[in-house]
Structure formats: C-alpha cells, structure tokens
Amino acid sequence: YSSISDDIQAGSAIIPLYWDSVFTDSSSSSYFMGVDGQQFFFNKSTIDKLDIAVRSMSLSDTRIYLRLLKRPEGDADLEGRFGAQYLMPDIYDPDAVAKIHAAITFLAERYTGEEGRISGFIMGKGWNDPEHFNYILTDSFEEYIDRCATYTVIVANAARTVDPTIDIAIPLTSEGFAEKTDNKGKNLFKTTLESLLAYFDNSIHGGINCSFLMDTEEVPLGIDNDSLKDGINVNYANPDGRFYAGAQKEFSSYLSEI
User: Fold this and answer.
1) How crowded is residue 73: how many other Cβ atoms within 10 Å of its Cβ?
2) Are 94 and 101 in contact (CB under 8 A)?
3) Contact between residue 198 and residue 145 where contact means Cβ atoms under 8 Å apart
4) If phi over 0 gives left and psi between -120 and 50 gives alpha, with beta otherwise, what is residue 163?
C-alpha cells in the first residue's frame, strides 16, 4: 500500500473488517453494548480473531488500521449485474447508522487499551471507482459524494468521541487512474478528491480531519520483465503507473498546501 498522507507507511498493518461479520442476532456467543436504549450484539468469533491480530501487532508497535468493508454477498443483483466487489452501507437508513455508530464506538473503546491499540479506520476501498469498490444504486455523482462524506462523518464522530486522535483514512485506488472519468469527462480520481474536500469544507461546521490512502498494484518505476530500465524512469511504466507516480507527487503537494 502507498499513501499520499505521511502517516500510513511501512510499519503499518491493514486488517479487513467486514460489516456482515460484525453483528449477530444471538445474545449467546456475543459481546454486548447498549447505546441510547438499543442493544447491539457483536459476533464473538469475529471480535476474538480481531483481538488476537490487534494484540499481536501492537506488541511490535505496528500502526494498525481497520478497513471497513461491506460485501455484496446475498445480493446477487448487485454482484451479478454490476460486478461490485464492495458496497457502501446504507447511511440513509437510521437502523444502519445506529449499527455503524455502535460498532465503531465498541471497536474504538476496545482497542485503546489492554486489547491493543488501533491507529485508525479506513473507509472501505477505492472511492474514485464507485462501480466496483464503493457501490450504491445511484447515477448521481453528487448523491454519491454526499453519502461518502456522511459515512465518513458518522464513523469519525463515533471514533473520536472515544479517542480524538484516531485517524480516519479515505481510500483511493490507482486502478484505471488514467482512463476513468466522470460524466463530464473529468478524471474521476481528481474529481472525487476535490468534491469530498469541498463538501467537508463547506457543509460540515469546523470541517473534518482525515487522511487519504492510495491503494495501488502499479509500479511507478521503469520495469520490464522484472528488471529496472535506466534506474527510476517512469517513462517506461505503463499509463496507470505513470499517472500514479504523477498523482502521488501532485496530490501529496496539494494536500500539504490546503
């Protein structure tokens, strides 16, 4: 993983956490939390496995991030017709919002002490590729950004009520960097990033602090058959690799100035 923030680097670990595995309807074999008069039961098996991972990594002073993911399992329509790998939770559903708030509160409280410590939450994957990684049933980019930003605020408010220093990372992907555009022909990576920042600045009182994580399988170096050509020369990289290298530099500078 490569990040355009300075915080998520080597020495960090990312643990996937799937929303469908967090909750259970059974009070047996579960952990319980009451929030605002509601009862929430967390899957003991999932949390116990997470305990082991977080605790062991904390012993080596690893910075740990939990990546929040929603799988399309059980929704063959979305999975089959659209090929969506991950969905966004329905943050317009009050019950879903209550569950998210309870789970983030539970996890933030649990992983700030003896069970180990997490550094932050990653808000899914690939926000600049909503068809595959953060899918919702809408053709409106404005609604998509609204949902992304609202989801971020829900998680941030719950986590930072427990620990004001916890990081919230917004994920972007290099997949299709050079080609993917919005309905106006603008590069989707840049449009997503700038739209989110504008939303945070203009729609949220006091703004919100967050990091940006760039996921990539592209290598922005000159590599041919596993051999470097002329040292570090991005001109030999494929288009996505070159775009990624340029974006890494451009947006690192851009974010440091705002």
Assistant:
1) 11
2) no
3) no
4) beta
Alpha-carbon distance of 180 to 48, in angstroms, equals: 40
Whole-structure pTM value? 0.78
Check: CB of residue 42 under 8 Å from CB of residue 22: yes
Determine the length of the chain: 258
> What is the C-alpha to C-alpha distance for residues 147 and 90, in angstroms, rounded to an integer?
8
The CA distance from 36 to 27, in Å, is: 18
Compute the Cα dihedral for 193, 194, 199, 204 and give only its sign: positive
Please give the single-letter amino acid code of residue 117.
Answer: R
Tens digit of each residue's pLDDT (9 = 90 or more) over 224-247 = 444 444 444 445 445 555 555 555
**What is the Cα–Cα distance from 59 to 54, expressed in whole angstroms?**
9
pLDDT digits (tens, 9 = 90+) for 142-155: 888 888 889 999 99
Using alpha carbons only, give the angle 138, 143, 146 rounded to the nearest 5 degrees.
140
State which amino acid sits at residue 237: A
- Beta pairing partners, 2: 214
Which parts of the chain have pLDDT scores under 50?
Answer: 1-10, 76, 79-81, 177, 219-234, 236-237, 254, 258
Single out the residue of 72, 219, 196 nearest to residue 131, CA to CA. Answer: 72
Q: What is the 3-state secondary structure (H, E, C) of 186-223?
A: CEHHHHHHHHHHHHHHHHCCCCCCCEEEEECCCCCCCE
CA 31-56-214 angle, to 5 degrees, is: 90
